[in-house]
Amino acid sequence: MDWVQALVLGVVQGLTEFLPISSSAHLRITSELFFDSDAGASFTAVTQLGTEAAVLIYFAKDIWRLLSTWFRGFTDASVRRTADYRIAWYVVIGTLPIGVLGYLFKDEIRTSARNLWLVATTLIVFAVLLGLAERFGRQRRTVEQMTMKDGVIMGCAQAMALVPGVSRSGGTITAGLAIGLTREAATRYSFLLAIPAVVASGVFSIPDVFERGGAGLQPSVAQMIVATAIAFAIGYATIAWLLRYVAKHSVYVFVWYRIALGLFLFAMLGAGAINAV
């Protein structure tokens, strides 16, 4: 991997991780269009540590409150009746689907799932689902009004993002809107839900990204650090912007963007301008 690719992909990761447009798809497409090579799923997972660090800092107070409440709930029955205690458990339970499926299908995620024909398809299909959820979702409930069933549904939606093109935030926001959460509530919860899975995936992928002969290009340690740092800085700004945006606007702009990108990708693949694998 050269420095230009590492820097560009760090920027792309920071810009797209939290938007419902699939950062993994954008990293895959950018790599193929401009660098004629796939940076690999491990590179994506490690740079996500930068964007998740942005989440940890941005939501530090919320995260500390949820964690402290969760631990206190083990010994204090009154704490177990609070919304924070329930939400903390929803995050734990909601993380299980992506953890189990990510482990079982690790090899497929790093190989066949990164086929650009599949990426183009998922971009469009899940754009339509996001649009339907925006159109027909009641959008009345807050995070505090979630139930265990809601947590499981959003956890399963997050697991679908193991396939590039689905989008971790896109899947969970779609599910959140479909079960009646407000856009801001669904977006905020999607950030919290992603923390355990993304951090675990990134940490376990660190050895793989430097493995010679592994899937994807091999970056240097310096390139990996810089790309992750760039993703952190841009990701932090993206969080603040997205929360303000969804509070006042629909998500249709992301729906149309995903459809346009998917159609463009189909056209490029059909013309033989880029390789699918």
Summarize this structure briefly:
This protein has 277 residues and is mainly alpha-helical. The protein contains 12 helices and no strands.
Outline the secondary-structure elements:
Elements: H1 3-16, H2 23-35, H3 41-58, H4 60-72, H5 83-104, H6 106-110, H7 116-136, H8 148-159, H9 168-178, H10 183-209, H11 221-248, H12 252-270
Helix pairs in contact: 1-2, 1-11, 3-10, 3-11, 4-5, 5-8, 5-10, 7-9, 7-12, 8-9, 9-10, 10-11
Describe the structure.
With about 280 residues, the protein is an all-alpha fold. It has 12 helices and no strands. The protein has helices at about 5-15, 25-35, 40-60, 60-70, 85-105, 105-110, 115-135, 150-160, 170-180, 185-210, 220-250, 250-270. It is globular. It starts with a helix and ends in a 7-residue tail after the last helix. The mean pLDDT is about 90.
Mean pLDDT equals 91
User: Poorly predicted ranges (pLDDT <50, ≥5 residues)?
Assistant: none
Q: What kind of sheet is the major sheet?
A: none
In one word, what is the shape? globular
Tell me the number of strands.
0
Calculate Rg over CA atoms: 18 Å
The total count of helices amounts to 12
User: Structural class of the secondary elements?
Assistant: mainly alpha
**How helix-rich are the residues, as a percent range?**
over 70%
- How would you name the oligomeric state of the polypeptide chains in this document? single chain
Query: Approximately how much beta-strand content do the residues carry?
Result: under 5%
Distance between the termini: 18 Å
**String of helices and strands:** HHHHHHHHHHHH
